[in-house]
């Protein structure tokens, strides 16, 4: 969900809330359960996120390593057949003027650390 909240300033704040569910396990998919135990996924994810946001903005994305390597910043995500899309609320990983952001990380780039299958299950047809 993309949420706009009027906080009394000139512009509303924008943030996200994502819900991911593992149907087979009947449990939520969290950032921690998305990856194999002991993996360091942000070592791979952060440079991809930084490059994708830089591409979108048309300038080098000023994301500090402290923010870019903080798992708490990656709690909101969506899983597609070929990517994991991370959503960042306004001011979460960059100055608030940068707005709300999203970055697409190909599943193939993080396949070695994903706890999910690298491709969607076949429908059997």
Care to describe what's here?
With 125 residues, the protein is an alpha+beta fold. The protein has a single domain, classed as Actin, Chain A, domain 4 (Alpha-Beta Complex), CATH 3.90.640. 19% of the residues lie in helices and 22% in strands. The protein has three helices and seven strands. The termini are far apart.
Q: What's the helical proportion of residues?
A: 10-25%
Terminal residue distance? 33 Å
Q: Architecture, CATH level 2?
A: Alpha-Beta Complex
Beta-strand percent range: 15-25%
- Sheet with the most strands? 3 strands, antiparallel
Q: In total, how many domains does the architecture comprise?
A: 1
Number of separate helices: 3
Shape: globular
Order of helices and strands: EEEEHHHEEE
CATH class: Alpha Beta
Sequence stretches where pLDDT stays below 50 over 5 or more residues = 119-125
- From the alpha carbons, calculate the radius of gyration and give it in angstroms: 16 Å
* SS-derived structural category: alpha+beta
Query: Mean pLDDT score, rounded?
Result: 83
Quick overview of this protein structure:
This protein is α+β, with helices and mostly antiparallel strands and 125 residues long. The protein has helices at 31-34, 42-57, 65-68, and strands at residues 2-5, 13-16, 21-22, 27-28, 77-79, 83-88, 101-106. It has one domain: Actin, Chain A, domain 4 (Alpha-Beta Complex), CATH 3.90.640.
């Amino acid at each position: 969900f993309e949420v706009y909240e009027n906080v009394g300033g000139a512009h509303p704040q924008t943030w996200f809330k994502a819900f991911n569910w593992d149907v087979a396990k009947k449990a939520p998919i969290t950032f921690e359960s998305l990856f194999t135990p002991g993996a360091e996924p942000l070592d791979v994810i952060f440079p991809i996120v930084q490059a994708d946001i830089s591409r979108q903005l048309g300038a080098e994305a000023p994301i500090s390593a402290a923010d870019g390597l903080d798992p708490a910043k990656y709690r909101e995500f969506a899983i597609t057949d070929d990517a994991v899309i991370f959503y960042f609320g306004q001011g979460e990983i960059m100055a608030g003027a940068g707005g709300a952001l999203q970055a697409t990380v190909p599943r193939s780039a993080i396949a070695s650390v994903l706890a999910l299958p690298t491709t969607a299950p076949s429908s059997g047809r």
